[in-house]
Amino acid sequence: MVNDEYRYKVLKILEDQPEITQRQLAKSLGISLGKVNYCLKALAEKGMIKAANFRNSQNKKAYTYLLTPRGIEEKARMTVDFLRIKLAEHDALTREIAELKKDVSNLQEK
Predict the structure, then answer these.
(1) Is the whole model's pTM more than 0.90, yes or no?
(2) Sign of the torsion angle spanned by Cα atoms 61, 17, 88, 95
(3) Measured distance CA(82)–CA(33) in Å, rounded
(4) At residue 54, does pLDDT exceed 80?
């Protein structure tokens, strides 16, 4: 199963590079080609992307992936969600770092 983080990353990459191959997408995400294929099929079934063959391509299996209006909306929603998550993680790390600095300072005073 592909999680929301990968779906978001796929949508982001496809928006920037609609002619990327599945193999290139898998490599850039660090996941298997099968997982990318599964994710693309799921996004297409949900109406978030549309795959079209290149008209002038020698490789008839070459596709361009376009975000649909629904895909653009979903990517925007996911961007807001991930920003909220990452800001919360940042705040938690900042507090943890402050505590660690305090602990180190206390150890050095002894």
Answers:
(1) no
(2) positive
(3) 24
(4) no
